[in-house]
């Protein structure tokens, strides 16, 4: 009798916690994340960013990892950010369902999901712009622009420091400085919004390897650069140094989506470039579509080690709730497969050959020697934390060099063979100190203790903040 009663109660509780395909309001988003954290407490962490939205709503993320709350050496960091434009809502619901799916499948013992979480630290942010979502929803969710911006009427995907302008200027003037460009910012086009500041701090704190941000209004995987070099508004292919890798990454979403890469599907009718998306594998160079200055995608690439693409998830910005279950099924394989792409290429540790301690902030430069003509990839990444690094690359032969002031450089030739759903191959670099005493690790700064009003009230204070916060940060 009691057994049956307990079983009945368990069924009721289970059904009440079962994910519902609907448009969840801002309070429900938090509740779902809290419930998932309780259900999968050993592999999740629920946290908020340093700033709130303009109206004071906290900006939540949920993390999946076997050791939540800390960077594990040689484990890549990955993120999805949704609902940057408040009226583009499909990504918001897909991110919530993805979190639910990872938790449920891990508990069920799904070997593929368990392995993914064991090998990857995954961060999911359902909404970057909860204020915009509220405005869009309150007005019916049918307008193409209402709710797009934050509560200060600022488009958050135009609000990041314009690092494209800086790297293009360096190219023209033959200045070899092509990464971690925040230190070169001397002025801002407009005040940074609290949501933007929060994401910048997240990017500076956690050494992301790969990420994507979700949008709506078309169906395509968009990759850098988003800004044109000439200033042309559209039609100009703006090639990044990692163009081959970015094309691969975009295709790894589009090909695993139900029909993003299907050449026979209907286009969303968003202009001449949009009509071609389905015929070119469901991917596009950002500036070739239309030029964006101050976007989050290119900011990630040029301010950190993170390779980010933008995923336009469908023609409708605010699809009806009845379409959400089908959209999950259309995107599920692509969402999981793209996370696995954080394991392509090469990873390893840069360490002091005398002390055997990891060397952070060592530069990793790559030259592609696959073909007869060797080509330098003019975008370097750096080692982080305890000297670990991750370099996303497509299959081929590369000459890789690690170097840092105070050490002799170390070069290795690497043949990259990317095997699906497994770890990147490991290549370590031992750097010999030029002089003794042995290298002493520099302690990181903690930008999270800074006052944002003081940080960003002037260009000079912005520059000071950048100069003081180029070290990788301790997470906890």
Mean pLDDT: 89
What is the makeup of the main sheet?
Answer: 8 strands, mixed
Order of helices and strands: HHEEEHHEHHHEEHHEHHEHEEEEEEEEHH
Terminal Cα span: 49 Å
Fraction of residues in helix: 25-40%
Widest β-sheet, arrangement of strands: 1-2-4-3-5-8-6-7
**Strand residue percentage:** 15-25%
Shape: globular
Number of helices: 14
Radius of gyration based on Cα positions: 22 Å
SS-based structural class?
A: alpha/beta
Number of strands: 16
| Low-pLDDT segments, ≥5 res | 3-15, 436-463, 465-476
Structural account:
The active site is at residue 312. InterPro entries: CarboxyPept-like_regulatory, CARBOXYPEPT_ZN_1, CARBOXYPEPT_ZN_2, Peptidase_M14, Peptidase_M14_domain. The protein is of the alpha/beta class. 31% of the residues lie in helices and 20% in strands. The protein is built from 14 helices and 16 strands. The strands form 3 sheets. The chain has an 8-stranded mixed beta sheet with strand order 1-2-4-3-5-8-6-7, sandwiched between helices. Strands 9, 12, 15 and 16 form a 4-stranded mixed beta sheet that branches. Strands 11-10-13-14 form a 4-stranded antiparallel beta sheet, with no helix packed on it. Helix 2 packs parallel to helix 3 and helix 3 crosses helix 12. The radius of gyration is 22 Å and the shape is globular. 48% of the residues are buried.
């Amino acid at each position: 009798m009691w057994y049956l009663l307990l079983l009945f109660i368990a069924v009721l509780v289970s059904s009440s916690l079962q994910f519902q395909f609907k448009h969840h309001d801002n309070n429900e988003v938090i509740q779902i994340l809290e419930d998932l954290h309780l259900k999968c407490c050993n592999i999740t962490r629920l946290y908020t960013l340093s700033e709130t939205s303009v109206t004071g709503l906290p900006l939540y993320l949920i993390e999946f990892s076997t050791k939540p709350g800390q960077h594990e050496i040689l484990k890549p960091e990955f993120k999805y950010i949704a609902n940057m434009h408040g009226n583009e809502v499909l990504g918001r619901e897909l991110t919530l369902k993805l979190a639910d799916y990872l938790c449920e499948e891990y508990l069920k013992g799904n070997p593929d999901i368990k392995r993914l979480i064991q090998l990857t630290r995954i961060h999911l942010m359902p909404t970057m712009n909860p204020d915009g979502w509220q405005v869009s929803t309150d007005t019916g969710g049918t307008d193409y622009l209402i709710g797009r911006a934050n509560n200060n009427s600022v488009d958050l995907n135009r609000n990041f420091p314009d690092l494209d302008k800086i790297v293009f200027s360096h190219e023209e003037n033959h200045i070899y400085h092509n990464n971690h460009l925040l230190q070169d910012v001397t002025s801002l086009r407009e005040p940074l919004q609290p949501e933007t500041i929060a994401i910048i701090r997240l990017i500076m704190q956690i050494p992301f390897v790969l990420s994507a941000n979700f949008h709506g209004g078309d169906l395509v995987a968009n990759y850098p650069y988003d800004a044109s070099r000439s200033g042309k508004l559209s039609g100009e292919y703006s090639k990044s140094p990692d163009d081959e890798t970015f094309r691969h990454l975009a295709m790894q979403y589009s090909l695993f989506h139900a029909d993003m890469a299907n050449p026979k599907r209907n286009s969303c009718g968003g202009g001449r470039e949009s009509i071609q998306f389905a015929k070119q594998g469901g991917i596009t160079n950002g500036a070739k579509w239309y030029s964006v200055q101050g976007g989050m995608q290119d900011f990630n690439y040029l301010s950190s080690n993170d390779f980010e693409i933008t995923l336009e998830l469908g023609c409708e910005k605010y699809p009806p709730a009845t379409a959400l279950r089908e959209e999950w099924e259309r995107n599920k394989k692509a969402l999981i497969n793209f996370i696995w792409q954080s394991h392509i290429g090469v990873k390893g540790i840069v360490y002091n050959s005398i002390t055997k301690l990891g060397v952070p902030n060592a530069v990793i430069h790559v030259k592609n020697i696959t073909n007869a003509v060797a080509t330098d990839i003019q975008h370097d990444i750096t080692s982080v934390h305890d000297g670990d690094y991750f370099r996303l690359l497509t299959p081929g032969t590369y000459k890789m060099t690690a170097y840092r002031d105070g050490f002799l450089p170390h070069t290795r030739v690497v043949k990259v063979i990317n095997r699906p759903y497994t770890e990147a191959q490991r290549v370590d670099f031992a750097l010999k100190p030029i002089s003794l005493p042995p290298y002493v690790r520099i302690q990181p700064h903690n930008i999270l203790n800074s006052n944002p009003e003081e940080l960003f009230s002037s260009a000079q204070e912005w520059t000071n903040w950048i100069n003081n916060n180029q070290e990788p940060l301790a997470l906890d």
